[in-house]
Amino acid sequence: MNKYIKNLNRIEFVVTLACTGKCKHCSEGEHTGFSEHIDGDVAAQAVKRLAGQYKMDSLMTFGGEPLLYPDAVCKIHSAAKEMNIPKRQLITNGFFSKDEKVIRDVATRLADSGVNNLLLSVDAFHQETIPVEPVLTFAKAVKATGVPVRLNPAWLVSEDADNPFNCRTKELTKMFEDIGIEVAEGNVIFPSGNALKFLKEYFDPDKEYLNPYEEDPEDVRAISVEPNGDVLQGNICREDILDIIEKYEGK
Asked: In degrees to the nearest 10, what's the CA dihedral of 95, 198, 202, 63?
């Protein structure tokens, strides 16, 4: 077993970088010109291979907006369910269709595939370009399936900071709390991508901000697969995930 990855317990899939929003806080930038998405069958096989070798505690799919490609999302989570990965998480902005039948159908498919932890990105930044009504419809549909769903808002500076964005976020989250959707801890915006472009006045230029999502390259506990299959120093579309891990050199 590779000494740098002996403690691996989580796998993440960036399903696509295409997105239905154009958020000012997005660390990935404008999200324009992206059409690539993960191959669901290849990703599912990688999940099975990893879970057969490591004790995987959690799996996550996100984006971009992952539910632009629900087939891939469901294949990944079905594999995770089959391999008894306990926490199977999806992060979505909830806006992939305005058709209520499509929305309800996707919610049911997610439940059937084994998603058991759904985080819904609702805040001042997402709702600048994403209508709240279909997101509310999706939240109600997911809740009706029995899948736990919580809001995952982005806070500017901190949750307690008094600024117009946080005030608007609290107005929005109240709408979902009124239908029984709880608010999770959320996350504090990291200064990169669009956040530096549009919100730089809220960041201290003399402060060093640590990226909370960076892994220690010599003790990798979570790996993230890109939409084209890239992960670590390989690609799951061309190589077995276990071979990629075995060859990883810790940098």
From this structure: 30
Of the candidates 32, 87, 92, 46, the one whose C-alpha atom is nearest the C-alpha of residue 68 is 92
Residue positions counted in the chain: 251
Separation between Cα atoms, residue 186 and residue 151, nearest integer Å:
7
pLDDT band at 29 (very low <50, low <70, confident <90, very high): low
Strands, E assignment, the chain = 10-16, 58-63, 87-92, 117-120, 149-151, 154-155, 182-183, 187-188, 222-225, 230-231, 234-235
What pLDDT score does 204 carry? 85
Section 42-59 average pLDDT: 98
CA–CA distances in Å: residue 233 to residues 7, 60, 142, 249? 18, 20, 36, 9
235 in Cβ contact with 229 (< 8 Å): yes
**pLDDT of 131-165, one tens digit each?**
999 999 999 999 999 999 999 999 999 999 999 99
Q: Is residue 195 within 8 Å of residue 26, measured between CB atoms?
A: yes
